[in-house]
Amino acid sequence: MATFVDNVTLHLRAGHGGNGCVSVKREKFKPLAGPDGGNGGNGGDIILVADPQVTTLLGFHRHPHITSRNGGPGMGDHRAGANGETLELAVPLGTVIKEPDGTEIADMNVAGMRIVIAPGGQGGLGNSALSSTKRKAPGFALLGVDGFEGDIVLELKTLADVALVGYPSAGKSSLVAALSAARPKIADYPFTTLHPNLGVVQAGEIRYTIADVPGLIEGASEGKGLGLEFLRHVERCTALLHVLDCATLDPGRDPISDLDIILVELAAYPVPSDQIPLIERPQFIALNKIDVPEGRELADFVKPELEARGYRVFEISTVSHEGLQQLSYALGDLVDEHRKAIEASPLVEVITLRPKAVDETGFTIRVEGGTDGNLYRIIGAKPERWIAQTDFNNDEAVGYLADRLAKLGIENQLFKAGAISGSTVIIGEGNGVVFDWEPTLTSTAELTTGPRGSDDRIDPRNRRTNQKRREDYYDLMDGKEEARQELVREKDAGLWRDDLEVSDAEH
């Protein structure tokens, strides 16, 4: 059964906002005391928190579907709906949050770091909050907005001061067990270690962590063996300790060739631009298994050549613990120097100011071609949220939406984009919400005199488009002209005479 998981996909659904309430207060001797519908509650957020006490993503691997509570609906007598409870999830220190396409969202590398990864939906306003001096008793309320729903990827990159690198069965797990209280799985076959093992080492007054990660082979940077599963956990280390097997029985292998192959793989692995390449970080070498006579002889033979390359070399035995104290203190001094250098470096705080552009409208209009002519798609956070809040079964709510869109300047931008009366307009990506745009639906919703929940401007029984008005006007003018011509023909035929003409003839 898996006990360590370092990559998992979460399926998140944040709580939806509650709907606002439509209510009119009624009391004795006060039959219509005004609207009193309360607001809907906000949906619960899903928050990730970096916790040093958590070491694996196993819990998320077993339960990847996570949902927070919805907000409650508003009620009469100005009672607001309950907010959904915030759901906090503890993740290991060093967890990287990514989109499913690989885009990085956040790096949880500081203890206590928090990020709202799935915001809950906004609750809808009740008709009490929507009332004004011109709209005394709204017959509608806003709907709650859906919370975030989608997938994220959690990828754990082990945080350790020293990373042990080397071929499988080189003795890395045994070294972790000898230097610390950790007890990783140890066996005499390759790839015994299938996940990183962390150990805490105390060297005098210095305490640091070491990581034993899956063995490295030729082609690991390209994904061979445990490849990238291993190298991901080396990215954050301060120093590398090459553990070389001096008593290997594999033909064609020796400490020098093993080191060269490992260095090639480390150099080929890309790290983020703000980090030092793996090959350029401080590196020590531990020649292991000198408790075996042949191993000690080979270690004494290759040590001068390795030191000539500039490495600091230690001959050790994880069985007899020979040389471990010197190695432990040397690594502790290196880690301590690195920590002091970080503390001494000035902390530069970068503040990025992104003021709103003068001409920023909060939305964009994209013209798309179609079989029936151009289609005008409106993309923007506000219009899309307003669409989600609108009850399209309520004409007054639709009229309120039209007023909000007009005040945002969408009408003017549609004119500039070439839209005409009857053009197809879609708000939002995908199918969205489709309208047959009519510029007449632009203003004075609060001045309509219809009953609550209705809007005369969008009443299908009497609503006319500009084109229809134009056609009716032309028909009226044609009818009048035809009547004039008919009168002229009757007069010429002698069917009637003008009274003025008769009086002139008598005189």
From TrEMBL:
<dbReference type="Pfam" id="PF09269">
    <property type="entry name" value="DUF1967"/>
</dbReference>
<keyword id="KW-0963">Cytoplasm</keyword>
<keyword id="KW-0342">GTP-binding</keyword>
<feature type="domain" description="OBG-type G">
    <location>
        <begin position="160"/>
        <end position="336"/>
    </location>
</feature>
<feature type="binding site">
    <location>
        <begin position="191"/>
        <end position="195"/>
    </location>
    <ligand>
        <name>GTP</name>
    </ligand>
</feature>
<comment type="function">
    <text>An essential GTPase which binds GTP, GDP and possibly (p)ppGpp with moderate affinity, with high nucleotide exchange rates and a fairly low GTP hydrolysis rate. Plays a role in control of the cell cycle, stress response, ribosome biogenesis and in those bacteria that undergo differentiation, in morphogenesis control.</text>
</comment>
<dbReference type="InterPro" id="IPR027417">
    <property type="entry name" value="P-loop_NTPase"/>
</dbReference>
<feature type="region of interest" description="Disordered">
    <location>
        <begin position="444"/>
        <end position="476"/>
    </location>
</feature>
<dbReference type="InterPro" id="IPR006074">
    <property type="entry name" value="GTP1-OBG_CS"/>
</dbReference>
<comment type="subunit">
    <text>Monomer.</text>
</comment>
<feature type="binding site">
    <location>
        <begin position="212"/>
        <end position="215"/>
    </location>
    <ligand>
        <name>GTP</name>
    </ligand>
</feature>
<dbReference type="InterPro" id="IPR015349">
    <property type="entry name" value="OCT_dom"/>
</dbReference>
<dbReference type="GO" id="GO:0005737">
    <property type="term" value="C:cytoplasm"/>
</dbReference>
<feature type="binding site">
    <location>
        <begin position="317"/>
        <end position="319"/>
    </location>
    <ligand>
        <name>GTP</name>
    </ligand>
</feature>
<dbReference type="InterPro" id="IPR036726">
    <property type="entry name" value="GTP1_OBG_dom_sf"/>
</dbReference>
<comment type="similarity">
    <text>Belongs to the TRAFAC class OBG-HflX-like GTPase superfamily. OBG GTPase family.</text>
</comment>
<dbReference type="InterPro" id="IPR006073">
    <property type="entry name" value="GTP-bd"/>
</dbReference>
<dbReference type="Pfam" id="PF01018">
    <property type="entry name" value="GTP1_OBG"/>
</dbReference>
<feature type="domain" description="Obg">
    <location>
        <begin position="2"/>
        <end position="159"/>
    </location>
</feature>
<keyword id="KW-0479">Metal-binding</keyword>
<feature type="binding site">
    <location>
        <position position="173"/>
    </location>
    <ligand>
        <name>Mg(2+)</name>
    </ligand>
</feature>
<dbReference type="InterPro" id="IPR006169">
    <property type="entry name" value="GTP1_OBG_dom"/>
</dbReference>
<dbReference type="Pfam" id="PF01926">
    <property type="entry name" value="MMR_HSR1"/>
</dbReference>
<dbReference type="GO" id="GO:0005525">
    <property type="term" value="F:GTP binding"/>
</dbReference>
<keyword id="KW-0378">Hydrolase</keyword>
<dbReference type="InterPro" id="IPR036346">
    <property type="entry name" value="GTP-bd_prot_GTP1/OBG_C_sf"/>
</dbReference>
<dbReference type="InterPro" id="IPR045086">
    <property type="entry name" value="OBG_GTPase"/>
</dbReference>
<feature type="compositionally biased region" description="Basic and acidic residues">
    <location>
        <begin position="453"/>
        <end position="476"/>
    </location>
</feature>
<dbReference type="InterPro" id="IPR014100">
    <property type="entry name" value="GTP-bd_Obg/CgtA"/>
</dbReference>
<dbReference type="InterPro" id="IPR031167">
    <property type="entry name" value="G_OBG"/>
</dbReference>
<keyword id="KW-0460">Magnesium</keyword>
<dbReference type="GO" id="GO:0003924">
    <property type="term" value="F:GTPase activity"/>
</dbReference>
<protein>
    <recommendedName>
        <fullName>GTPase Obg</fullName>
        <ecNumber>3.6.5.-</ecNumber>
    </recommendedName>
</protein>
<feature type="binding site">
    <location>
        <position position="193"/>
    </location>
    <ligand>
        <name>Mg(2+)</name>
    </ligand>
</feature>
<feature type="domain" description="OCT">
    <location>
        <begin position="355"/>
        <end position="439"/>
    </location>
</feature>
<feature type="binding site">
    <location>
        <begin position="288"/>
        <end position="291"/>
    </location>
    <ligand>
        <name>GTP</name>
    </ligand>
</feature>
<keyword id="KW-0547">Nucleotide-binding</keyword>
<dbReference type="GO" id="GO:0000287">
    <property type="term" value="F:magnesium ion binding"/>
</dbReference>
<dbReference type="GO" id="GO:0042254">
    <property type="term" value="P:ribosome biogenesis"/>
</dbReference>
<feature type="binding site">
    <location>
        <begin position="166"/>
        <end position="173"/>
    </location>
    <ligand>
        <name>GTP</name>
    </ligand>
</feature>
